[in-house]
Amino acid sequence: xxxxxxxxxxxxxxxxxxxxxxxxxxxxxxxxxxxxxxxxxxxxxxxxxxxxxxxxxxxxxxxxxxxxxxxxxxxxxxxxxxxxxxxxxxxxxxxxxxxxxxxxxxxxxxxxxxxxxxxxxxxxxxxxxxxxxxxxxxxxxxxxxxxxxxxxxxxxxxxxxxxxxxxxxxxxxxxxxxxxxxxxxxxxxxxxxxxxxxxxxxxxxxxxxx
Length: 210
Fold this sequence. Notes:
Layout: H1 3-18, E1 51-54, E2 59-61, H2 62-66, E3 71-77, H3 82-86, H4 88-99, E4 103-109, H5 116-125, E5 132-134, H6 139-144, E6 148-149, E7 151-155, E8 161-165, H7 180-189, E9 204-205
Parallel strand pairs: 3-4, 4-5
Antiparallel strand pairs: 1-2, 1-5, 3-7, 6-9, 7-8
């Protein structure tokens, strides 16, 4: 095997390894990790209730959001992850487009490498139209089986999970984008099952240890 062939093989192996779904928590900051891991809650399962504080110490409970809502989007979120930040405009647009249809959004920051001050400073520069709560010890992320930022869970008023996965398929060209979350919301609001109730989540791994 000549040197060029060996170099190509090594490069292919490294790229392929980087794109594999994450098997668990990682210290990598921005690799496209994720996938339908066995630990994630499945559509049809009742989501665990929780109450968490935002960066100003105001409490937000999942149960209170579900009351009076047709659907609630729980987004596992990060101040630092390029994937999470890169999808903020799309999620803000979704929040605005569907607010009048009874859909609410709650962002959950579960990274133990980020804290309330990081969130507060980030939101001062980049305000969001939905609350961001902080998950000490990643306990809520563990209960949901959330793996990445972003990782989306859509709940109906009973707290049943109806969609799990990504906001879209991550295609770079607009013509190739599959808007999974919008499709799920439209179907559920029309009283139908989502065309895909579970899709492959991708993003930065949730940092469960500081």
